[in-house]
Amino acid sequence: DGGITQSPKYLFRKEGQNVTLSCEQNLNHDAMYWYRQDPGQGLRLIYYSQIVNDFQKGDIAEGYSVSREKKESFPLTVTSAQKNPTAFYLCASSTRQQNNEQFFGPGTRLTVL
Amino acid sequence: GNSVTQMEGPVTLSEEAFLTINCTYTATGYPSLFWYVQYPGEGLQLLLKATKADDKGSNKGFEATYRKETTSFHLEKGSVQVSDSAVYFCALKVIQGAQKLVFGQGTRLTINP
To answer: Other C-beta atoms within 10 Å of A42: how many?
Structure first.
């Protein structure tokens, strides 16, 4: 079955450590996205990539980094510079056609202790 | 800029009640509009979409009509079920430029039997 996988589902880290969240898709989509979701808030865009080896900052990129070395993969690193990293992180992908929808993964809940 | 405002939740209804969740937007250009649903602990799933004025999106008994004159995309369902309990997000995407979604804050819906 085609889809987006995120691992792990739950992640715990100590304050000051960098952590990398995985996102893989087998939908052959060019574009991939990372969102952050906090309780009672909508999703906020962290980074996005429209093609391999290219990515752009979203609305809240500070303290995060990404890479896009393969079409299928778009890992997100939460660095120690991120002030409030505890959140639910969602990865999405889409084609680059107009009016297309984004498909979402199941999410990773990161808790920094 | 682009923004989405949703009806504040939480919303609690009895089974078979009529549902309306209000959504209004501001946008530069001509956006596509989406409703996504999020079940507990999961990622988002597309519920329905509309890509131009007066379009009606529908799925699983839910409907929403793209109203350009009132800049609205209200979600409706004639008879809700317990299984409709979830968080609903309204979102827009401006066609020009990067394919980014802008989300409302979400509305938590609880249906009691």
So the answer is: 19
Q: How far apart are CA A71 and CA B11, in angstroms?
A: 40
What stretches in chain B show pLDDT beneath 70? 95-98
B103 Cβ partners below 8 Å, 6+ apart? A42, A43, A44, B4, B36, B89, B90, B91
Average pLDDT, chain A: 92
Pick the closest to residue A45 from A36, A53, A54 (CA basis). Answer: A36
Q: How many separate helices (H) and strands (E) can be counted in chain A? A: 0, 11
Worst-scoring range by mean pLDDT, A74-78, A86-90, B98-102?
B98-102
Residue type, B75: L
CA atoms of B83 and B51, how far apart (whole Å)? 27
Indicate which of A99, A103, A108, A109 best probes the interface with B, i.e. most B CBs within 10 Å of its own CB. A99
Instruction: Give yes or no for residue A40 having a pLDDT over 90.
Output: no
CA A33, CA A95: separation in Å to the nearest integer?
A: 12
d(CA A95, CA A103): 10
Q: CA-CA distance, B109 to B92, in Å (whole number)?
A: 21
Q: Residues in chain A whose beta carbon is closer than 8 A to a beta carbon of chain B?
A: 4, 6, 31, 33, 40-45, 48, 50, 56, 58, 90, 92, 94, 96, 98-107
Cα A66 to Cα A105: distance, rounded to the nearest angstrom? 17
